Amino acid sequence: MAVQNPDNRRFHRISFDAPCELHWQEQVWSTEVLDISLKGALVERPEGWDVPLGEPCELVVQLNGHEAGIVMAVELVHVEGHRLGFKCQYIDIESAMHLRRLVELNLGDPDSLERELAHLIE
């Protein structure tokens, strides 16, 4: 498996410690986000997780103690020990606005954010 050089990433990963839920079929797991980007998320692997690669899931990231959140339709793309990597397949406009603001605050550079948004819509 090829390892991607972090310097070649189009999307900055934001270290972000927040509770989240993973939904797959009729199952729900509570876990923690490790990092997040405009294109996906890395989360702590919850106890009992046995979902195969390539499966569609839903990721619900809790913000502000449940008042607001980021909801993404995601695909499981890699499992590394106790970490799960998901690629975003769809995000609604309200969730996208929350995620954009989170990335914007952490990047501190409006030009970097604009470049990432441009890559996202390519």
Describe the largest sheet: 6 strands, antiparallel, barrel
Overall, the morphology is globular
Helix content: 10-25%
Low-confidence stretches: 1-11
Q: Taking all residues together, what is the mean pLDDT? A: 80
CATH superfamily: predicted glycosyltransferase like domains
Rounded to the nearest angstrom, the distance between the terminal CA atoms is 25 Å
Order of helices and strands: EEEEEEHH
Structural class: alpha+beta
Question: Spatial order of the strands in the main sheet?
Answer: 1-2-3-6-5-4
Overall CATH class? Mainly Beta
Strand content: over 45%
Whole-number total of structural domains: 1
Radius of gyration: 14 Å
Number of strands: 6
Q: Architecture in CATH?
A: Beta Barrel
Look up the CATH topology.
Thrombin, subunit H
Helix and strand topology:
Blueprint lengths: L13 E11 L2 E11 L2 E5 L11 E8 L4 E13 L2 E9 L1 H15 L2 H11 L2
Please name the defining characteristics of this protein.
122 residues; alpha+beta; Thrombin, subunit H; globular; disordered N terminus
